Amino acid sequence: MDNLFVPGKGPMTAVRDERTTRRTLVLVLFAIPYAVLLAAAGGWFLYRFRVLPMPKFDHTALPLVRSEDGTTTVSMPNGNLVGLVGQYPDELTAYLRFQYLAGLPAIAGTEVLMASKERAEEPIYDLYLMLPNDLIASGMRLARLEIGKYIERFSMDSPPTSQINEWRKQTRIFDAAYQRPVKQKLLQLPPNQLQSAVATFILFKSTTDRRAREQIVPTDKVLSQEQSLQFAADMIEVAKFYDIPLSMLLGIGAMENNYMDVRGDLHHAVWKRRAERGDIVLKRRRGRVLVSNYSQGPWQITRETLRYAHKLFLEDKRDYTKLPSRLRPPRHLDLDKVDSHVLTTYAGLLLRNLLDYFHGDAAKAAGAYNGGRIRPNMQYAEGVAMVSDYAHRVLSMAAGRKGNAVQETPLKVTRKAPAELPAS
User: What do you get for the CA distance between the two ends of the chain, in Å?
Assistant: First the structure.
């Protein structure tokens, strides 16, 4: 029974079948990985060289290229071309930049638009320039503005006419809101909102100064946001202490040096009977001396006027302990070591003295700040008045509307103000 005979299959046949089965199994085991690799390679090839669908455009289409008389133009089919030239997180900065661009001679006649949109539940303010429908020429125009540092960067788009009309509507609303007359004094506004608005104005004037754009002055002379906040706090304290209009102080600071701590009138000199401590003597003649009298600091106070301001301080009966320590002048004046904080105090004291001398006549006091009591510079006074009125209107409107929507529109304004610096 153990040695049954299977017809057709002897011992050799069984061995051959076993070997065949083994070879088949080995081939299958080796073939599977190669098949997987081949399938993967085929899948990659099909994905890599697949036919992609045409891209979808929300509101634009492919530009049209034309060449006539050797001139190539690239235009958008809908006839609209705009340049996005600025995005700002707060409304005041955006509006100041909006008006700055609108008044630039380099783009005279170009329509400037200001619009608002929300991002992460916070408003973003966009500035656009309406451009001729020529991508090449308009791109070169925007590039020149970027090179000249009138704008930081740009991009171009071709929105539908309905979108442009919406931006125009928003622009009219913003502009109308900031053109409204205001009666409230700046110092009557909430302190943190006032400081934020004043700092924004100072930062704007400093960064758009021609000397800053063309890098004529060192970059460290251009105020940072933190420095602007500190300067704003100084001006507010000094305006309250001396009971002078903050807007007038802003006007004089803008007219003098756009709030930058840069020396001026470097070659200015005056003759004196005798040299005093700290004088830079340039020449001596017949018992008299010629001394350097350059202007210093953001308020452009000359060295001799600084001596006069310090004399006024020593004679002043006000309680200077009410001022933060950084703003209090020292008892002994060192002409070469007066920082911008104390210079702001001296500027306020000089202006208060001039207002008293001219019985409250702000125009004559401003003119005398630049030209002296005998011959007040009334042209300078007009410039101060223009900046003062503008600052008063714009800053009052911006600070007074923090957290409120612009009237007659769902547009939102920034709810958060920059952190306020300590008062001392």
Answer: 114
Helices (H), 263-339: 303-315
Q: Is the CB of residue 63 less than 8 Å from the CB of residue 135?
A: yes
By three-state DSSP, how is residue 118 classified? strand
Q: Is the dihedral of CA 44, 48, 53, 59 positive or negative?
A: positive
At 129, the amino acid letter reads L
Element (DSSP H or E) covering residue 295: strand 295-296
Task: Give the pLDDT confidence of 265-282 residue by residue, as tens digits.
Answer: 888 888 888 888 888 888
Dihedrals phi, psi of 155, to nearest 5 degrees: -150, 160
Residues 66-78 have pLDDT tens digits of: 888 778 888 899 9
- The token pair at 120 is 């992460």
pTM above 0.90, yes or no: no
Q: Is 175 helix (H, G, I), strand (E, B) or coil?
A: helix
d(CA 345, CA 328): 7
Q: Let me know: does 235 contact 344? Beta carbons within 8 Å.
A: yes
Give the separation between CA 296 and CA 294, rounded to whole angstroms.
7
Give CA–CA dist 424/418, Å, rounded: 18
Amino acid at 400: G
Domain positions in the chain: 64-179, 186-262+297-400
CATH code of domain 64-179: 3.30.70
Nearest to 81 by CA among 158, 183, 196: 158
In the chain, what's the furthest Cα-to-Cα distance?
A: 150
What distance in Å separates the CA atoms of residue 367 and residue 205, rounded to the nearest whole number? 21
C-alpha–C-alpha distance, residues 188 and 359, integer Å: 23
| Contact between 199 and 229 (Cβ < 8 Å) | yes
CA nearest neighbour of 390 among 191, 192, 181? 181
- Predicted confidence band of residue 406 (pLDDT cuts 50, 70, 90): very low
Burial of 362 (0-12, 13-18, 19+ CB in 10 A): buried
